[in-house]
User: Fold this.
Amino acid sequence: MQSIGIFDSGLGGLTVYKELKRLLPNEKFIYFGDTARVPYGSKSPDTIRKYAFEISYFLAQKKIKLMVVACNTASSVALNELKNAFRFPVIGVVQAAVETASSMEHISKIGVIGTKGTIKSKTYQNLLIEKLMNVSVFSKPCPIFVPIIEEGLIDSIIMKTTMDYYLKSFLNKKLDAIILGCTHYPIIEEQIFNFFNKKVKTINPGKAVAEEVKRILSKNAIENTENAGNIQDEFFLSDKQENFKKIAKNFLGFSISRVNIVKNSII
Amino acid sequence: MQSIGIFDSGLGGLTVYKELKRLLPNEKFIYFGDTARVPYGSKSPDTIRKYAFEISYFLAQKKIKLMVVACNTASSVALNELKNAFRFPVIGVVQAAVETASSMEHISKIGVIGTKGTIKSKTYQNLLIEKLMNVSVFSKPCPIFVPIIEEGLIDSIIMKTTMDYYLKSFLNKKLDAIILGCTHYPIIEEQIFNFFNKKVKTINPGKAVAEEVKRILSKNAIENTENAGNIQDEFFLSDKQENFKKIAKNFLGFSISRVNIVKNSII
Assistant:
């Protein structure tokens, strides 16, 4: 049985894995988190492409049938190169989120939040304008959200003041939707939804990519239709991660029992 | 003329370079910032030691006469191994800060703030207890400080609420001093000093290491006594850094004109 590879800069991509697992319970997944070099959001496109290739090659050796780039930053700067290089389909969260946005009705003003690398690449902006035509895109890098989420302070006064700082300029824009363009942000989806008085739709790229993967598997007739039963997904990290189980549970809502550390040979 | 190497996980070590440059204006410095893999604070000791060795080897090839480990996390987990491996003296900010603390009078309660890696290693704590004997050490990892400083929000409400969150438990401890155990923290030295109503001495490991280096150069008779005049210090990074000049000016108070990007061969 061939697996679906998931590649992320770290553990944030577990929010994407969660959506894939939910929508495609019969599939086996192999997750790779580049915890030795996380985060990608502040690194240069060249360096991110190099890391993305190394990890994709690692997953290719596992004979995956499809790869999900769960990291928004890597999807923003490396997706076309990865698609051109590898034989299996490569699906990025950014591209999937734009597909979802373009399928929604009455979207003329859209906000995008993410890392500096994601926002600076303008990939969301360019794809949204290409797909939705008459749309205004308002982008904002929000680099302090991730460490606050990782500290578990999502309902704190620190998060409230930081959210106000980053998002208040969106308030008078009358947004129709906002894309949560970083794997960590679905963790604060409710807080963001409430910040906009429940009047702005939130788009979770993890959910979008799960739907896109389902479509591609079906179209290529490579889905696994039998019950996967006891098949165990595999988790690889490039560095040991303190409190991995706790973090995984925070991102997933369920525990992961075993994780493999990959040292050096490829990375 | 032989140089002094400075190694850091990124650009924060420029605050250490600033102190070295001020105290030792006749020396030439070679700075290496591992911007391709920054930050070290959340990575495992094994991985940090590997990175530290690669970069020290790069600096060794530049025939340096002494190396400063400007990164508190690397000093905490890799200093002894580096000292044992290389022929030139290796001086860490952590060890220098402890020397400074031990030379101060009336220090019986001391606070230490830093990254998760620095605090978890207990290196500050163990060295302080070893050197100062009757001392109580109170440690706290403060991982949100760095992104707030990097966002330039040092006088914001976000910084105020975050400082309150991290440091309020120190308020009833009647600290005599607090060690700013991360290269970014000297940028908020005044804010921390004010938080404690100017009643707690702040120890800047960058200043401490500059004094230690001066001592070692003199003791080994390897200082450069002639005016260095127009000698240009060299700056190497493992990844391009957006807004490098702006960040450098923020950390240093003066500009750096040229930076070299080191790709791949060693790193």
User: Anything to note?
Assistant: The mean pLDDT of chain A is 95. The interface with chain B takes residues 35-38, 42-44, 46-47, 50, 116, 120, 143-144, 146-148, 150-151, 153, 156-158, 161-162, 165, 239-242 of chain A (CB under 8 Å).
